[in-house]
Design brief:
The complex is a heterodimer of chains A (about 260) and B (about 110). With about 260 residues, chain A is mainly alpha-helical. Chain A has one domain (about 30-250). In chain A, about 70% of the residues lie in helices and about 0% in strands. Chain B has helices at about 5-25, 35-65, 70-110. The chains are: A mainly alpha (about 260), B mainly alpha (about 110).
């Protein structure tokens, strides 16, 4: 029985598998790696099943898959224009991976503890960093050195001394804010669920009138669970739309002013 | 990709026809983007925070590099705060524009 609210985020090596080492780093297969594979597999399975029997009148599965497709396509079109649709595969993959990671983490413990990979900053930061790199590469590929004018807004030139560092810091902060937001939401949500859970068990075990009181945290945990499902979807959406907005900056320099 | 590419022109043509057809039918988008206040609040808070952290970290790193005491840290921290406020204001303006566009679209349909 877990006693600390942080125990659910611990990364442990899977005992049945051998220990691996690469260049002095421990690269053993952990529960985080396992759940990453499960998430990627689940997302792939969901879409394959949805697309396998395409009918004019869609089944429920097909309808869900098509809905997620049009949802992301609409989002990219409105945030980054029709040109942004070239990046549909990347953004759709990102969205599905984050969404499934968030949702899988909400599964009840079914013999094995479902690990929320997006509750680790290094995972979300790696995703955000790829977005960041892609924006830079796309920007330079499209505009060459003119991409650097992203850091020079249209102001009188003495102001540029102040504005250029500000714009650079603002640009560099993007991967940080993108990753911290997702990670903090997941970490806070799961910690909250655990704390409310211990209240229920603690009060119910106290006996007498206190046991009756345990209904209050039970109601709270129900509400919080519902909220967590909303947040799981919302954060995946926010991650994807901010990727589109950053991409839009690289595709259409200065259009957002 | 150039504008004389026949495929690109055709695609734009189809796009335009689709848009007109949709408008005529008054078709409502199937999926509305979730516009939760909680999501917006969280987005703005992290943007402000991240810029301050990045600014401070750059200043701290440069101070260690040049041994210039706390001065660059203070300067870059201020730059970070300013950058954070800039980012938040810009995001808020963008959100306002999106909302205005959505409202305009809605009143057109009605």
């Amino acid at each position: 029985m877990a006693t600390s609210p942080m125990e659910q985020f611990e990364v442990t090596r899977i005992e049945a598998l051998p220990e691996l080492e690469l260049f002095g780093f421990d690269v053993s297969f952990t529960n985080a790696s396992l759940w990453m594979c499960i998430v990627a597999g689940a997302a792939a399975l969901f879409l394959t099943l949805g697309a396998s029997s395409s009918k004019l009148v869609p089944s429920r599965m097909q309808s869900l898959a098509e809905l997620s497709y049009t949802f992301i396509a609409d989002m990219i079109r409105s945030a980054a224009g029709t040109e942004g649709l070239k990046f549909f595969p990347f953004i759709f993959t990102l969205f599905m991976f984050v969404l499934f990671a968030n949702l899988v983490g909400l599964l009840p413990p079914i013999g094995i503890h479902p690990f929320t990979i997006t509750s680790h900053i290094i995972v979300t930061f790696a995703l955000a960093f790829f977005v960041f790199l892609m924006v830079i590469v796309v920007g330079f590929a499209r505009h060459g050195l003119r991409f650097l004018t992203l850091f020079a807004p249209a102001v009188p030139w003495p102001m540029l001394i102040l504005m250029i560092p500000i714009e650079i810091v603002s640009f560099l902060s993007r991967p940080i804010s993108l990753s911290v937001r997702l990670f903090a939401n997941m970490l806070a949500g799961h910690t909250m669920l655990f704390v409310f859970g211990t209240f229920v068990i603690g009060l119910a075990g106290a006996g007498g009138a206190l046991s009756l009181l345990s209904i209050a945290p039970l109601l709270a945990i129900t509400a919080v669970s519902a909220l967590e499902f909303l947040i799981a979807f919302l954060q995946a959406y926010v991650f994807a739309i901010l990727t589109c907005i950053y991409l839009n900056d690289a595709l259409h320099l200065h259009d957002h002013h | 990709m150039s504008d004389d590419d026949p495929d690109v022109r055709r695609l734009a043509e189809i796009e335009e026809r689709l848009r007109k057809a949709r408008e005529k039918r008054g078709e409502v988008r199937q999926v509305e983007a979730p516009n939760s206040k909680l999501g917006i609040a969280f987005r703005l808070v992290t943007e402000l925070m991240a810029a301050v952290i990045v600014g401070g970290a750059i200043g701290w790193g440069l101070d260690r590099l040049f041994g210039t005491g706390p001065f660059l840290f203070i300067v870059m921290f201020m730059v970070g705060v300013t950058a954070g406020i800039f980012t938040v204001v810009r995001s808020a303006q963008q959100l306002n524009r999106d909302q205005a566009a959505k409202d305009a679209g809605r009143s057109n349909r009605e």
